[in-house]
Design goal:
The chain is an alpha/beta fold. Strand 2, helix 2 and strand 3 form a beta-alpha-beta unit.
Length: 216
């Protein structure tokens, strides 16, 4: 398969989060459509371990794929599950607990994990529990989660993770570090840089990175 190193996509979100909710981490539906078109066929099982408000699931159903996923936040889970036909495939739990559920083998995985800055103490993967504070604990947990994801992926299946570096007082090389977490369980296949276009493109957010890995 030929992987595109650079693409342009319109920034859109037809299925917006519920009014008043923080959807700042919601990614564009055009990104989901692009990767599902390139990496999957109709009826493919598509998994998102960080489902959020359900962008991956919405688009998967629109494109005649079958969505599966997990979301730890109860509010996000309830809203997403209430909007899709395959709501029974969505689990309200920490994605580190994938092994507790009887998921079928997946054809494809597409996700955007919660980001964390290198100098933050609040760890989004533990809901800010001070026992698991800090960037190192975040990366260790992320590596463990993708090891669980690997167990439910078919051999030859691809995993695509949308991720960005974080600027600030201390630069966070999250693209590199997330790649290292994935490489513990998958084989690197490509990196695609997506340039956002269109009138809805966020100001100051011109592009994003998509890391492509394969289950071998």
């Amino acid at each position: 398969m030929k992987h595109a190193p650079f693409i342009e996509l319109p920034y859109d979100a037809d299925h917006n989060a519920p009014k008043g909710a923080d959807n700042s981490d919601q990614y564009s539906e055009s990104l989901v459509r692009h990767f599902l078109k390139d990496y999957t066929k109709k009826s493919a099982k598509v998994f998102d371990p960080f489902l959020g408000f359900g962008t991956t699931a919405f688009v998967a159903e629109d494109m005649k794929r079958v969505p599966y996923g997990m979301e730890a936040d109860g509010e996000r889970y309830e809203w997403a599950a209430g909007q899709i036909e395959h709501w029974q495939h969505i689990i309200n739990d920490d994605s580190a607990q994938i092994g507790d559920y009887d998921f079928p083998k997946m054809d494809f995985c597409l996700t955007s994990p919660p980001f964390m800055s290198i100098n933050d103490r609040w760890n989004p993967l533990y809901g800010g529990d001070p026992k698991y504070a800090g960037y190192e604990a975040y990366l260790n947990r992320m590596e463990f989660i993708f090891k669980q994801v690997a167990k439910i992926m078919k051999r030859g299946a691809h995993v695509v993770v949308q991720v960005d570096n974080i600027d600030g007082r201390h630069f966070t090389p999250l693209v590199r570090d997330m790649g290292d977490c994935l490489a513990a369980s998958f084989t690197p296949a490509a990196e695609t840089i997506v340039k956002w276009t269109g009138r809805h493109a966020p100001r100051g957010y011109s592009h994003t990175h998509c890391l492509v890995f394969k289950k071998t």
